[in-house]
Every structure is written in C-alpha cells, then in structure tokens.
Design brief:
Blueprint: E1 7-12, H1 17-27, E2 34-40, H2 46-53, E3 58-60, H3 69-82, E4 92-94, H4 103-108, E5 113-117, H5 129-136, E6 140-147, E7 157-164, H6 171-194, E8 198-201, E9 204-207, E10 210-211, E11 216-219, E12 230-231
Parallel strand pairs: 1-2, 1-4, 2-3, 4-5, 7-11
Antiparallel strand pairs: 5-6, 6-7, 8-9, 9-10, 11-12
Helix pairs in contact: 1-6
Bound molecules: 5-O-phosphono-beta-D-ribofuranosylamine.
Length: 234
C-alpha cells in the first residue's frame, strides 16, 4: 500500500540538484511522499537556498559546531526525528551528503537510509569517480542508489543508471551526464520504499517480496536528453 503522507528527510552538502529532482517527483505524483526537511551539514551548501526557494523546510546542522563526530551525529538525529511525523519509518535520503556517519547513526536508520553514489558500484567507491573512470577508459559509467551501511559506499546496491563515456568527455561533461541519470533514478527507488515494495533484510535487498539478486539497471537514452530511462535487461 502506498502512503501519500510518507515523510522524507533529505541530507545534503552541496548544490541539491538531486533534492530538487526528488521534490519534482513528489510534486507531480510520481513519488507518493513529501519532503518534510532538507538538512545540510554546512552553511555554504547551495541546496539550502534552493530548498527554501522550493518552499521546503531547510535546516543547518553545522558539522563545524561539533568537536566529535558522534556529537554531530546525535544533533543530526535529533533534527531528523523532529522533522517527521513518523520518525521510525521515514526514509532518510542522502543526496550529495559528504559526512561519514558513525555506526550508531547508521544503525538507527538501517534499512531506510539511502545514498546515491556517482559510479557503477562496486567500481569507484570514494571520491573523484568521473576522473577515475575517464583515466581507466571505461565504456560505461553511471550512478548507484544503495542502502547505507557502515562501510563507505559499500551498502547493498538497489538500482543503477549507466551512461556511455563518449569520445572527448571531460570530468565535467561526464559528471553532467551522470547527473541527468541520477535525477531520473533516485525518485524511483524512493517510490519503491514509499510503496513498501523495497526492504532490507538480513539476507539482503528484497523488491516486491523477492530477493534482488543484482541491482536493477537502467540506461540514459542516447539521443533524447529529456527521455525516460531505458530498462537494461539484466
Ligand atoms: C551527486 O553526483 C551524487 O551522486 C553525489 O553527490 C552529487 C550531489 O549532487 N553523492 P547534487 O548536490 O544533488 O547536485
């Protein structure tokens, strides 16, 4: 059953373009949920202003105000739980959130905390993914949505979008193409969660009651930049 009142909390550190794409999906009904808070860990996150311009409640929990990581995590958890009517169930969506979270925090939101990472995991965990993909000369690059676990960029992958690496690509052209994919990918996975179709069990990810043996894979259409994602049979 879908629940149109499901509250989503989004955590950001940067521009917030994924946040805006998720917001658009909530607005037009593709995603049966509402963003009740956007929380940034740093004041310079441009996404804070963007959230306010979209009339989404925006908050700052500044990591520089906390000497210990655990204290920052505790303040963040307090803010999150105050921003939802259902603190035990709301998805926590990391969208360009650049802090490493302690195991206690990860455990608290286990199974409903998602992250998007700009690579086809398990390839290129960590930073500078586009640069590393270009240096390796790979044919395909992309983005992955995964459950957050204590291992950085290491949680179970749910779905991915792949994009071709084109001749003459630079870090910025490739990153822009990956982001086009990200904006079409993230809301779909959150919608599965909102519709109670997606769960994390001790045995792994389950989608529609069946174990997900490998991530769902989509592809950005080559010609039609505004087009929908294409299913890649896998
Ligand atoms: C995205 O590329 C995401 O994969 C990575 O950080 C970037 C955030 O971009 N984790 P934005 O702030 O959503 O524009």
């Amino acid at each position: 059953m879908s629940d149109p009142q499901l509250d989503i909390i989004i955590l950001i550190s940067g521009r917030g373009s994924n946040m805006a794409a998720i917001h658009a999906a909530c607005q037009d009904g593709r995603l049966p949920a509402r963003i009740t808070a956007v929380i940034a860990d740093r004041p310079e996150a441009a996404g804070l202003e963007l959230a306010r311009s979209l009339a989404i409640p925006a908050f700052l929990v500044n990591f520089r105000d906390y000497a210990r990581r655990a204290d920052f995590d505790a303040a963040l958890a307090r803010r999150i739980d105050a921003c939802t009517a259902d603190p035990a169930r709301s998805p926590i969506v990391l969208a360009g959130f650049m802090r490493i979270l302690e195991p206690e925090f990860v455990g608290r939101y286990q199974g409903r905390m998602l992250n998007i990472h700009p690579s086809l995991l398990p390839a290129y965990r960590g930073l500078h993914t586009h640069r590393r993909a270009l240096a390796d000369g790979v044919a395909w690059h992309g983005a992955s949505v995964h459950f957050v676990s204590v291992e950085l960029d290491g949680g179970p992958v749910i779905a991915q979008v792949r994009v071709p690496v084109l001749p003459g690509d630079t870090e910025s052209s490739l990153s822009a193409r990956v982001q086009q994919g990200e904006h079409r990918l993230y809301w779909r996975v959150i919608a599965w969660m909102a519709q109670n179709r997606l769960t994390l069990t001790p045995a792994g990810v389950q989608l529609d009651g069946a174990p997900l043996r490998r991530p769902i894979l989509w592809q950005l259409p080559a010609q039609d930049a505004d087009g929908d994602l294409i299913d890649v049979a896998n």
